[in-house]
Design goal:
mRNA processing; phosphoprotein; mainly alpha; two-stranded antiparallel sheet; 4% strand; 464 residues; 54% helix; zinc ion binding
């Protein structure tokens, strides 16, 4: 019996009402512990999502853009091109119902309430790492390592990072303009949002972000954001922290271009270099100062009359030059010699080269499921399959993050493997011996096995 638009509409309304009753019934139960609370919240969240998707389908039906609903209502009333014939429409519908039950004599009414009641006992799959302890704690080890790789005076302990990660005002302002710091903060925000969605699925994130954004914009207009005060910009000039760009954070000219034309112009002017031209030319000119000593630069890069002068424009006396040379020598003594750019250890010094080679930290392994994120070393690559970033990527693909998908980083390979697993488990598999139907002379529907047996018996009776 074909499902009409009106029948689909009725069934959708019934499903929404049944889900609403289940939500009320589930929330009346008080969870015994944190695990039960999370299961209950995620069950309710899933039912709310089903209600939203069903309601959207109902809205499309009621909009009736193709006039299918209107035509069906008219057909039920017997309205045809030849006029109105109520009895003809009634008997046509009755004939269709009888034909359906004749072809499916074993059809029975399915109690939908049993399936919906089973949803109250369902335990949704919630992806947590071992360190997160099912939503009790944050697992920020990866973010901690990324934060420690920024150019601070000395590395910090993990416990210290947990105290200060929510205090960005302690980070120097010039460091906040770098690409590494931006990526660090984006990853931190992404993880916290994902963790909040897993632990508080019933909260409205859009409303929370809207409120936070409004408060931030008001504080920004009032210059009340700690660490971003507009100080040192009086009398038409910026402070040194805002104009100087630390080139150690940039490996190519393209990365330096992300700073923006205004920041490049301020940095070039502070060094006494020409600040005109396109963004590409400014970035190339400033990038020269990273590896080339200031006094060996070509004269064409300097503003006329600024060659050999101090970057702030004043003439340096011999006493000032001696003081500057002493301070530079002290800085050189404090700088750590690290020509191979080895990772820093717990003591703030580069790790031994043999340890660097042993763990394969020079080997870059990318994962497409994690958004082409790079993992350095085999150990970090193997651990990431159980971390939140990979779990979130698998969840977006609609694939369970099981051991079958270890070592798989390609989206296409993961989808193909998931399809093969489903076929092996019998899902979406066509079984002709059970599902293929045949009709005999008496118009009875039989599957392939029963039909062949029936034909065999009839043939033997005919022979004998």
């Amino acid at each position: 019996m074909s499902s009409t638009i009106l029948e689909v509409t009725r069934a959708s309304h019934e499903e929404v009402e049944r889900l609403e009753r289940l939500i009320v019934k589930d929330l009346q139960n008080v969870p015994a512990n944190n695990k039960d609370r999370l299961f209950q919240s995620h069950r309710v969240r899933n039912m709310i999502d089903n209600i939203i998707s069903t309601t959207e389908k109902l809205v499309e039906i009621y909009e009736d853009k193709d006039n299918a609903r209107r035509d069906e209502i008219a057909a039920l009333g017997g309205q045809t091109a030849m006029g109105t014939n109520v009895f003809s429409a009634f008997y046509d519908r009755l004939k269709e119902i009888r034909e359906y039950h004749r072809r499916h004599p074993a059809a029975r009414a399915v109690d939908v309430n049993e399936d919906y009641e089973a949803m109250l006992k369902e335990e949704p799959v919630i992806e947590f790492t071992g360190e997160e302890a099912f939503g009790k704690y944050l697992d920020m080890h990866e973010l901690y390592n990324q934060y420690n790789n920024l150019k601070f005076e000395k590395p910090i302990e993990y416990s210290t990072y947990l105290d200060i990660f929510s205090q960005p005002h302690i980070v120097p302002c010039k460091l906040k303009f770098t690409r590494q710091y931006k990526e660090c903060m984006e990853n931190l925000l992404e993880y916290l949002v994902y963790f909040f969605q897993r632990t508080e699925p019933l909260q409205d994130l859009d409303r929370i972000f809207s409120k936070v954004t409004t408060e931030f914009e008001e504080q920004w207009e009032n210059d009340a954001i700690q660490g971003w005060e507009r100080t040192g910009q009086e009398n038409g000039h910026s402070s040194a922290d805002h104009t100087v760009i630390d080139l150690d954070f940039y490996c190519t000219v393209d990365e330096l271009k992300e700073v923006g034309p205004e920041k490049l112009k301020e940095a070039l002017a502070a060094l006494g270099l020409k600040s005109g031209g396109t963004v590409q030319q400014r970035a190339e000119r400033l990038f020269l100062t990273k590896d080339t000593p200031f006094e060996k630069l070509d004269k064409k890069h300097f503003v006329k009359g600024s060659r050999g002068s101090v970057p702030n424009g004043g003439a340096a006396t011999s006493k000032e030059e001696g003081t500057q040379a002493d301070s530079e020598s002290d800085d050189d003594e404090q700088q750590i010699y690290n020509p191979l750019r080895l990772p820093m250890g717990w003591d703030g010094k580069p790790i031994p080269y043999w340890l660097y080679k042993l763990h394969g930290l020079g080997q870059e392994l990318k994962c497409e499921i994690c958004g082409n994120y790079s993992y350095w070393g085999r150990r970090a690559f193997e651990r990431h399959f159980k971390e939140w970033r990979h779990q979130h990527g698998m969840r977006c693909l609609g694939i369970p993050n099981t051991k079958n998908f270890n070592e798989i980083t390609s989206i296409k390979e993961a989808q193909e493997l998931w399809k093969r697993i489903q076929e092996r488990q019998g899902l979406n598999k066509w079984r002709p011996d059970l599902e293929e139907e045949y009709e005999d002379k008496e118009e009875k529907l039989l599957n392939f096995e029963r039909f062949t047996t029936h034909c065999f018996i009839r043939c033997h009776k005919f022979v004998f």
